[in-house]
């Protein structure tokens, strides 16, 4: 018996009610409008107290003057910082520093019109580590960007302290890789930072928590801190110049800031991610052991964003990738402002006094609010210069609408002035052109049409975009270790919007009748979309089919009961949602027939679900079946499962495809 079963059995055995007879209050929660409340109420997305940062949200108002950009001056910073700022004022460095080049460019109206109306021209290039890249831009073609084989940290135009601290901070990661000639970057970091440092948008869809997650986090934290320190140094330096300036002289040279102070928004899925980011910031700001930086509210932050190892249930065996994704505090409702000056960091800074905001999509959604709500605020997003969306694939498993809602409120003109000195505001912000200067860094574990849409429809950076577009040569089907015939059944849809209805009708008319016979018992139907799951569940009830169902909102007793009925054959069908599998990874025993109503979002879920058949008693393999529904619009998901060569053949042919996996990989 699985460890999770043993924990649930005691709770479930006491009640013998049919899983189909769960009270109607759960049925009433199926609409999209009610899903966010449902998520919070049932705790499907969080293992922590959802009140963190919501009911009693703490904001540090004590250190306002200490971290104010308006009232501090350059001489309060270190000598290194002074020297760095003096260097940046020379004409040579002015022309080479990517930060200065990007933020000081004065766009013309005709260029803005081009970005808004014309389609992008694109070119392909292959890099040693990133692979196939697509460079796209609306404006005239930029010079070809080639990766550096080795990087001299002094040529990267890093803010002075970072030149010293970065190699030390990254040393531990480098030492874990046996072969690396670069003393500062891994091959992946080097190529990613090469793109980030040009201020182009970047989409990297091969970020996994298990392999390269920390590499990427370190790289974008370096870029973030480099940008913020340079921007603040410029403001502080100009403060000193203005103070020494003769009265009555107006000077446009001091336009050095946006309409609001926040410059970087970092969107991450869990509190643990925010904790790791802040720890990296602290290490990057500490030049040596003698010079520790002052971090306000550090203890509170550790308490609210850290985790207690004792809270984790013992003996739960899960795949390595699951353990990596759900490590630490996985509460998904949070937001925190961070203010940085050279010697100090202020956590829990009010947003309008913050340089960096770290938040989850849900944390952003609850402060942005909806139209008509009295208490809502999104002015702090008006002058964001770098937007980082990390682990975007996880938001598909949470609530993608929160991400879309956030993107719609990025870089809008603020409704209030918030005490800004308009004589210091850059013209690009006054012209409402900040979205054309915003750099977006998007990291995901997979390519998905919804994630691609964010990159293609919500990013307007005049510097252009770079997307990694590698196609999987070998699909996850190669990791199936049971002897199993795989039948891929193609459905024909007129267009993308009709696929949902076409799939349902195809399933009801062509697929389900083949499984109604009692001989086809123990059939698991894997459903990626929650709304498809609700539709199927309602249809099964209407047809009075013998089935049980498990979704991400099913309670423990219901889960255990459904699994037991299915294993014993007391229920012929089991409807299972993808998000349940994502969050729980339970082994479902007793599967003899498997139907993928749609290809899984994560390709490795295909082999994981197929391999669950190993848990079934031996001798049954002769009757095992696996059926997959797909259309021509599923090309990306199909390639991730069967590989690019088979995908090309399957999309050209309109016949059903039969594959047989021998299990030799076991």
TrEMBL record:
Cellular localisation: Nucleus, Nucleolus
Domain UTP25 NTP hydrolase-like: 199-466
Keyword Phosphoprotein: yes
InterPro entries: P-loop_NTPase, UTP25, UTP25_C, UTP25_NTPase-like
Acidic residues compositional bias, start-end: 1-21, 73-82
Keyword Repressor on entry: no
Comp. bias intervals (Basic and acidic residues): 22-32
GO CC terms, sorted: small-subunit processome
UniProt domain UTP25 C-terminal: residue ranges: 476-660
GO molecular function, one term: U3 snoRNA binding
Region feature (Disordered): 1-93
Alphabetically ordered keywords of this record: Developmental protein, Nucleus, Phosphoprotein
Membrane-crossing residue ranges in chain numbering: none
A GO BP annotation: maturation of SSU-rRNA from tricistronic rRNA transcript (SSU-rRNA, 5.8S rRNA, LSU-rRNA)
Function: Component of the ribosomal small subunit processome for the biogenesis of ribosomes, functions in pre-ribosomal RNA (pre-rRNA) processing. Essential for embryonic development in part through the regulation of p53 pathway. Controls the expansion growth of digestive organs and liver. Also involved in the sympathetic neuronal development. Mediates, with CAPN3, the proteasome-independent degradation of p53/TP53.
Family: Belongs to the UTP25 family.
Subunit structure: Interacts with CAPN3; the interaction is required for CAPN3 translocation to the nucleolus.
Protein name: U3 small nucleolar RNA-associated protein 25 homolog
Organism of this sequence: Apteryx owenii (Little spotted kiwi)
């Amino acid at each position: 018996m699985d460890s999770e079963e043993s924990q649930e059995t005691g709770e479930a055995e006491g009640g013998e009610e049919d899983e189909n007879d769960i009270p109607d209050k759960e049925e009433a929660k199926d609409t999209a409008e009610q899903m966010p409340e449902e998520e919070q109420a049932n705790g499907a997305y969080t293992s922590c107290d959802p009140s963190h940062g919501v009911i009693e949200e703490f904001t540090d108002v004590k250190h306002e003057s200490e971290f104010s950009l308006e009232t501090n001056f350059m001489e309060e910073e270190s000598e290194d910082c002074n020297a760095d700022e003096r260097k940046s004022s020379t004409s040579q460095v002015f022309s080479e520093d990517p930060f200065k080049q990007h933020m000081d460019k004065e766009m013309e109206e005709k260029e803005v019109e081009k970005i808004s109306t014309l389609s992008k021209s694109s070119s392909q290039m292959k890099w040693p580590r990133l692979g196939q890249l697509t460079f796209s831009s609306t404006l005239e073609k930029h010079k070809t960007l080639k990766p550096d084989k080795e990087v001299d940290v002094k040529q990267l135009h890093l803010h002075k302290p970072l030149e010293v601290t970065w190699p030390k901070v990254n040393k531990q990661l480098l030492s874990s890789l046996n072969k690396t000639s670069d003393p500062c970057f891994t091959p992946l970091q080097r190529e990613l930072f090469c793109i980030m440092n040009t201020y182009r948008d970047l989409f990297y869809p091969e970020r996994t928590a298990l392999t390269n997650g920390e590499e990427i986090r370190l790289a974008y934290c370096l870029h973030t801190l480099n940008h913020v320190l340079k921007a603040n140094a410029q403001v502080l330096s100009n403060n000193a110049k203005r103070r020494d300036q003769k009265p009555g002289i107006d000077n446009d040279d001091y336009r050095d800031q946006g309409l609001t102070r926040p410059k970087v928004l970092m969107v991450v899925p869990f509190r643990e991610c925010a904790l790791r980011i802040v720890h990296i910031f602290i290490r990057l700001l500490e030049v040596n052991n003698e010079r520790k930086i002052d971090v306000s509210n550090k203890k509170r932050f550790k308490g609210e964003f850290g985790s207690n190892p004792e809270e984790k249930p013992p003996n739960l065996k899960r795949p390595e990738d699951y353990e990596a994704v759900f490590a630490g505090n996985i509460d998904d409702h949070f937001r925190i402002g961070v203010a940085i000056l050279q010697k100090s960091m202020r956590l829990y800074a009010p947003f309008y006094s913050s340089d960096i905001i770290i938040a989850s999509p849900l944390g952003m959604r609850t402060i942005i609010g909806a139209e008509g709500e009295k208490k809502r605020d999104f002015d702090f997003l008006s002058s964001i210069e770098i937007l980082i969306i990390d682990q975007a694939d996880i938001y598909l498993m949470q609530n993608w609408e929160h991400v879309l809602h956030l993107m719609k409120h990025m870089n809008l003109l603020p409704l209030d002035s918030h005490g800004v000195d308009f004589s210091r505001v850059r013209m690009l912000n006054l012209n409402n052109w900040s979205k054309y200067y915003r750099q977006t860094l998007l990291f995901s574990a997979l390519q998905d049409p919804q994630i691609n849409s964010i990159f293609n429809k919500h990013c307007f950076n005049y510097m252009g975009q770079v997307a990694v577009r590698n196609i999987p040569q070998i699909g996850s089907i190669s990791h199936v270790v049971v002897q199993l015939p795989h039948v891929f059944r193609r459905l024909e849809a007129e267009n993308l919007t009709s696929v949902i209805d076409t799939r349902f009708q195809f399933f009801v008319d062509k697929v389900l009748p083949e499984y109604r016979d009692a001989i086809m018992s123990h059939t698991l139907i894997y459903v990626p979309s929650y709304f498809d799951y609700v539709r199927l569940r309602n249809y099964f009830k209407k047809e009075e089919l013998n089935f049980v169902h498990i979704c991400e909102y099913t309670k423990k007793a219901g889960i255990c009961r459904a699994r037991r009925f299915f294993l014993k054959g007391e229920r012929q069908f089991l409807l299972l949602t993808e998000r349940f599998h994502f969050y729980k990874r339970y082994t479902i025993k007793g599967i003899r027939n498997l139907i993928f109503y749609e290809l899984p979002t994560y390709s490795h879920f295909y082999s994981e679900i197929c391999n669950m058949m190993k848990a079934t008693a031996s001798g049954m393999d002769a009757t095992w079946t696996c059926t997959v529904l797909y259309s021509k619009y599923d090309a990306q998901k199909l390639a991730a499962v069967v590989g690019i060569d088979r995908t090309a053949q399957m999309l050209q042919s309109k016949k059903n495809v039969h594959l047989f996996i021998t299990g030799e990989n076991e």
